[in-house]
């Protein structure tokens, strides 16, 4: 890839679609499942199963649409047209899912979730790949991904502010239709504006041509990459933990902690804490290394989450403190694993000579979605098992079992992620050695290509009488 300078305005414009992307992704995990179980009257098991199957459908489409995005460019480039194509799918699906007309059936929910995830996959994979291809500079790539992460969290702030405002001025219960509709309109209005600005302001640069590897061979090489396997396992675990707490949070804050009117505000505090904590985790990664910082963040989360067991019910400020402490770890796993994945891609590049960034990041996207699917698909049937009732009264025993589920499962998963990554071998020294090998190999290739080109020019010139071989 040639080096191209990207301005700060172009980087900012590139990141803008992250706002509606995250504003769409958060309600899918936190608000839509309880909304369809409580307000739309579907059973917890049905809702959990539909959301899990929709996520698995999303996982299936990831590599397929990722390869389509790689292999079918347009005159705009390789990525921007796919982002534009995704917009109508997302707009229509968001309208139907966030503003349904009751009664709804599981077929309605499943159908629109499947359409939503086609658009979701197109925009997320294309957007991540576009960002990776904007620059070949190591530090500038960090700036680009940092801007994307910053705006992702900003999108969470803004979409969470809507139900928090509604909770403060109305009597609507947590997960009510008014809050879900407000989120839907926020996404529908912002998505075309941000996509339009991104594709207009930020360019795509031409990539170097490369030979396509047959997909069976490509998958075989990828699946033999032990470092990749380890990152994917860690990413699966890192995403399961917040998906469990996220899918249970509205019920937890409303029924277990007795704070239904403050649920969205307290969730907003959690994300603000995560936003504030990111610079500290970045600084720590510069000192301790990315993989150890990731492990420390997971242990921190596993220790601070269980503190809610000791909080009195109905006390806003206690849960405020708990969400603030636990939320500091939010976001650490996501950006650290993306950064580590870039190092893993370098090992593949050294072995194959090809940059398959989009394919590798599609795998990372897959594990995140599988984690979210497992979280909803497992926890909601367990709520049925303990006889939890979203719209009615629950016994103290049921609420205690809910608390155990909310705390124990994520904590154990986070500890497992810490164990997987603590001794990850591709540390700072190993990465430096890897980069030197790549630069040495690429330098030899460039020198060889330049020599071949000079020889070809000389041969053509001699044959046509342009160059005198005697040098006179």
UniProtKB/TrEMBL annotation:
The superkingdom of the source organism is Bacteria
Q: Which Pfam families match?
A: MFS_2
| Record's keyword terms, sorted | Membrane, Transmembrane, Transmembrane helix
Classification via InterPro entries: MFS_2, MFS_trans_sf
User: A GO molecular-function term, please?
Assistant: symporter activity
Annotated TM spans: 12-34, 40-60, 81-100, 106-130, 150-170, 182-201, 231-252, 264-282, 294-311, 317-337, 358-383, 403-426
What the entry lists under CDD domains is as follows: MFS_MelB_like
One biological process term from GO is: carbohydrate transport
What are the annotated GO cellular component locations? plasma membrane
> Which family, according to the similarity comment?
Belongs to the sodium:galactoside symporter (TC 2.A.2) family.
List the protein's name. Major facilitator superfamily MFS_1
Q: Which organism is it from?
A: Parvibaculum lavamentivorans (strain DS-1 / DSM 13023 / NCIMB 13966)
